[in-house]
Structures are given as structure tokens and as C-alpha cells.
Amino acid sequence: MKKTFLTALSLLLLMGTGTVANAANKPEDPKTSKAVSSTQNENFAKADLSKLKKNKKGAYILFDGSSLYGWRGYNKATVPSKWTIDEGALKFAGKTAAANQKEGGDIIFAHDFKNFELELETKISHAGNSGIFVLAKEISGKPIYISAPEYQVLDNDNHPDAKMGVNGNRKSASLYDMIPATPQNAHPAGQWNKVKIVVKDGVISNYQNGVKVVEYKFGTPEWTALLQQSKFSEAKWPDAFKLLNNLGGESKSGVIGFQDHGDDVWFRNVTLKVLK
Questions:
Q1: Where does the secretion signal sit in this chain (predicted)?
Q2: Quick one: the chain helix, strand, coil %, rounded to 5?
Q3: Which one of 11, 102, 153, 272 is most buried, counting C-beta atoms within 10 A?
């Protein structure tokens, strides 16, 4: 496959300069993590939406298959080199020998959104795992998933996560480790799945292949109870509980992100419509 690699220099010219964070993209250890603040890291450039095109529905085209304007690594100034443009899709190259020699990490679109409708297509590799984050905060030295709910991207047939959690709440399109996607209508690994995530006035809805499969409202006693029953509970992971229980911070907004979970994954036709 033909791949287009963006150099660090070209991204710096597009996004502006900044200091690249040294935090590794490794799972957080709740037992050893230090207390965190919900203050967002403001050391890195933000995208200018006026530079983006819109589609016929009035949605911003965040990724058109040829440009990575607006995208960069989480808490980084540039796009990590494991992320490439591959035949019109944004690809994370996971476990190949060549990929292991390059820089990884989660990727974000560098603009805060509050109420929106995000649409895209995803394709996961055999036994692959990835995710989509919304309302995330960039917190220095901390991973993206400590502050953001995750729309699971998974090969349900071959990845062990599908059999973990409770009632399938780690399968594709689920609110990871919290609410299972029902019905479970994911296409197998190697096939494209249509994704839509709607965030509106504190309610988040996950759609998979045209069907609403999850809905929840954050900032409520019910949301707090969901967190307490998950791996993000106050007892198991106090830092994550604090941030997720105040999802989006005071502004109730944040960035969207795609996960480096070490496996090949593709994203394409990424659009976002801002809702009032």
C-alpha cells in the first residue's frame, strides 16, 4: 500500500511550534498515580476551524484522506510517525517490525468541542483493539483515557477484551467498561464500521452501523454510579474518577481522539457538525 508520511517540520509549519511531551503511552497504574488537576494543558497549538471545508450537511471535514491539518499527538506538537495516511484513511501502524521503531501515541484533533455530531468509519485489524475519545482534556503526564469516555473499537471475535468486563461492555461501540452496545451489530475485523457519536447538552449517544447502541447522560447521580461500578471507580482509580465525574470540566467541552492500543486500525471520512 502506498503511504504518505508527514514530517515533523511540515506539521510544525501547519500547527505552530510547541514543546513535545515525553510521557509514554502506557497504561496508567491507579495505585501509583499522583493526584491530578482537571486543568487542561495549554502548551500546544489549536486548530483553526475556518481553514476546514464543510460537507453538504454543514459538518466540518476533520480528515479528508489527504491532509492532517489540525491533528497532532496527544500532548505533542506533531503527529507521531506511526500514524500515516494510507489510501485515504488515517492509519495507526501497530505491530510490524518497522512500526515498532517509530513514535506512537494517541492522536487528537486539536480543537475543543461541546455539542456536536461526530461521524466516521473505522476498520480494525485481526484481534485488534482501539478506541475513540470525546470531551478529552490534555493533561501533562497523564493518558487521554483518564479524562474521556471511550467508544470501543474492537475485533469482537478474536480480541480477549470482548469476553471481559460485564455483559459485553468492552465490545465494539460500547462505552468502555461501563455500558454494553445493544444490539451488538459490529462488522468483523477487516471490514468498515460506520460510527456516529452525538454529544448534546450532557447526553452522549453512540451509533454503530446506523443503529443507536448506547446512550448516557453525564454529570448526574446515575453517571457517578456508573463510574463507581467500573474500573474508573473512586476506590480503584481516584484520578480517573475525579476527572470523568466532572466530564468536560467547567466548559463541558474537550478534544476528540483516536487510540494507539498497539494494533493496526484505520479511520476515514471523519466529519464533525457543531450543534447549538
A1: 1-23
A2: 15, 30, 55
A3: 153
pLDDT at position 45 is: 81
Among 266, 271, 230, CA closest to 93: 266
Do residues 136 and 106 lie in contact, with contact meaning Cβ atoms separated by under 8 Å? no
Residue 147, helix vs strand vs coil: coil
Please report, rounded to a whole number, the percentage of residues in the chain having pLDDT higher than 70: 84
Closest C-alpha to 228, from 212, 213, 240, 216: 240
Cell numbers for 248? 468536560
pTM: 0.86
CATH number of 47-64+105-274: 2.60.120.560
Letter for the amino acid at 29?
D
Q: With cut-offs at 50, 70 and 90, classify the pLDDT of residue 42.
A: low
Domain ranges of the chain: 47-64+105-274
Helix (H) or strand (E) holding 243: helix 238-244
pLDDT of 262 above 50: yes
Q: Do residues 199 and 217 make contact, with C-beta atoms less than 8 angstroms apart?
A: no
**Residue 113 in grid coordinates:** 468541542
Q: Tens of pLDDT along 104-160? A: 999 999 999 999 999 999 999 999 999 999 999 999 999 999 999 999 999 999 999
Cell reading at 157? 471475535
